[in-house]
Amino acid sequence: MRRLRACLGAAAAVTLAAAGTTALVASNASGATSALGNRWYAAAPYLMPLDNDPPDPASIMDATGLKAFQLAFVLAPNGGGCTPTWGGTAPVSSDTAVQSVINTIRAKGGDVSVSIGGYGGTKLGQACSDAASTAAAYQQVITKYGLHAIDFDLEEPEYENTAAVRNEIGAAKILQQNNPGLYVSVTTAGTADGTGWFGKQMLLEAKSQGFTPNNFSIMPFDGGFNGAASQTSALTNFNTILQSTFGWDQATAYAHEGFSGMNGRSDTGEYFSQADFQTVLDYATSHHMDRFTFWSLNRDRQCTPADNGGRTSGTCSSVTQNSWDFAKYSVKFAGVTPPTGTPTPTPTPTPTPTSCKTAWNASAVYTAGDEVSYGKHNWKAKWWTQNETPGAAEWGPWQDEGAC
User: Can 155 be counted among the known catalytic residues?
Assistant: First the structure.
């Protein structure tokens, strides 16, 4: 699909993207027999299947009409090595938990993409010696789950590592060649100018390797953004960067451009409402962009006072909403009308108060599994950390274990 599309004119590329051309049909051990249209993979919101109080994907599908999910994140093992794991701790090779989630989604006519990287943890591009070994690690994930789509989430701190980015882009190109029809997205940080210096270097690396994914997506949040107008401005600026980097005209650049937002309150206290999502969706569809997604479905529900407390949460949005309001914008981008009616917000049980662990100490060294208390919440370390405040960043080293 991607190599064919690179040879088409801009108008044909846009038509192909909008039509949601079906990718490779494959039979595999995971139970998948066919792919969805690419438009669904382009619309797939992120879902953490093992962390942040994972919601039931079947319920989301029934309530919204959503068919595709972007599962996050595949990383290198926390203890070192060039083999894929979920979150640095759960080996893909022996996984049954994520496979069960995938089976549930596919049984209802849906499918998944898998996202590698993200913020925090050790990425395979950092741990593996070269592009070929990085690609071999990711191929294990594709084969295990019978994937038709994959997302390379290249951001801090990995995208500051030139060798690691070279490995990731090289691996993406190898996977693209070895898995005909594979839908590939590359996601990176967004700035008011489109993307920053490291994002631009990543694009130049892709150009030097002759690699063109289905899209390059930016995340216009956590960078001083204020609502939809600032996001659409960043998307316009990013389009100019794509044009100048790859020599594309404007329409071709939009046909290879994507948006990855954050619903509700961002890590830095920005707020993005349902109205903001609609504005960006209108921009994306009117410019024939290739992707519209968001972080995350785990957060696509209203907070209770007990689980929010005025801060950014990994399990709710911190804005007034019905459950799965934001997922419906992905459904619209895929070209489907969501079910009518206002869903009843999913009740969140009030957690039973627990005793607080030993208070977090900025000078102490913590390793995976260590527990502390901070801000009247208990936290568990995901990996080695020192002087990183619990809750400062959603994808940081600390997992929120609830109020204490």
Answer: yes
Alpha helices (H) along 187-346: 197-209, 227-246, 250-255, 274-286, 327-333
pTM assigned to the model: 0.79
Residue 7's pLDDT band (boundaries 50, 70, 90)?
very low
Q: How far apart are the C-alpha atoms of 302 and 291, rounded to whole Å?
A: 25
Reading the block at residue 247, the tokens are 């020599």
3-state secondary structure of 209: helix
* Cβ(373)–Cβ(404) below 8 Å: yes
Is residue 139 a contact partner of residue 93, using CB atoms and an 8 Å limit? no
List pLDDT tens digits, range 340-384: 865 444 443 334 456 899 998 988 988 888 899 888 888 888 878
Q: 3-class SS at 403?
A: strand
CA–CA separation, 121 vs 74, rounded Å?
A: 10
Rounded to a whole number of angstroms, the distance between the first and last alpha carbons of the chain is 51
What separation in angstroms does the CA of 32 have from each of 62, 112, 331, 403? 20, 10, 21, 40
Choosing from 155, 158, 205, 270, which is the catalytic residue?
155
Q: What is the DSSP string of 233-256?
A: HHHHHHHHHHHHHHT--HHHHHHT
Query: What is the per-residue pLDDT across 82-123, written as a single tens digit (0 to 9) for each?
Result: 999 999 999 999 999 999 999 999 999 999 999 999 988 999
Contact 20, 288 (CB under 8 A): no
Handedness of CA 77, 213, 154, 225 (dihedral sign): negative
Q: How far is CA 243 from CA 28, 203, 212, 255, 280, in A?
A: 39, 11, 13, 11, 21
